[in-house]
User: What shape does this take?
Amino acid sequence: MSAPIAPSGARNVHSPFAPEPGEARAASAPSAAASGLAPKKPSAASERLLGAAREFEAVFVRQLLAASNFGGAKASGGGSGYQGMATDALADGIIRAGGLGLSEQIRRAMEKSEGAHVSPQGPDPKSVPNK
Assistant: This one.
């Protein structure tokens, strides 16, 4: 014998994450600020690194889109001027939306790298490896 079917409009579904009917929700965990675990304000050097990393990411996004022939100008017979404008517009949109997530990773890597000393004028040239 099969289970009875609920009348139309009624649902017999209960999420394991939802409180039982009539049950109060549990109090939320204390916020990070209230618990003393709020993130520290980044240092000026860290902010400079992040700014440089964002600039690098913007250049990288533009180069990536240009290399991928975004817009398909060659296939559609369009001019390269329009393709460049479309690439720039898309790159600007990607960067405004937060980029690809590389800038924060680049900043962390730069801060962790051995001997990377950042001064107000930029990184110490002696700490940058020669290639």
